[in-house]
Amino acid sequence: MSRGPILFALVVSLGLVPTMAAQALQRSADPVAVCVVAPRVEPVAEGDAVGLVPMPAPQLVVVEPLRELRIERHGRLVWRQQAPVGQPFRAPLAWPVAPIAPGEVVLLRLRPEQAAEGAFAHVQLVGASAERMASTDALIRSLGERPLAWLAAIEAALEVGDVPLAWALLFAPVLPEAPDLTALRAEVVRRGCGE
Predict the structure, then answer these.
(1) Are the C-beta atoms of 21 and 30 separated by less than 8 Å?
(2) Mean of pLDDT values over 98-107
(3) Would you state the pLDDT for residue 20?
(4) CA–CA separation, 103 vs 130, rounded Å?
């Protein structure tokens, strides 16, 4: 029997849709809003967002087409992708730089297609503890190519309120191809940041 409807019901009933990620702190430009689906982030003061990442190389899933994405470490730009005018790029994006270390804070600056030059939404990703990252890695390796095992692991994470882990699993690059998993991913992205 398919577990997809159970997961959809759980996601909907618990209100587990991604949250509005960020608004730029630009004083001279209109605020920039971006819907980050994965990794799971939560809004913080002044509209920015922060998320604890249980894996060192998270998949980036953003609803809006992007004109620019910057990744900063320790206040220094370490990676940048900028699209030509009229040719924005879309998520999902594989993590493009060295893995996030346990406890490390990495800043994402995201500029959606319609945002003014220099106006960015800001998302801080914080590496989980070494133990949590190791347990997430071990879990992913144990799931292998078994779609039902992946669905069960995602459901178990949601049932205990561990949405960062559930979303890390759901958007993992190694997630096996299966109709239920594809449908669940699509549903989470479709819901975006919710109403």
Answers:
(1) no
(2) 97
(3) 40
(4) 8
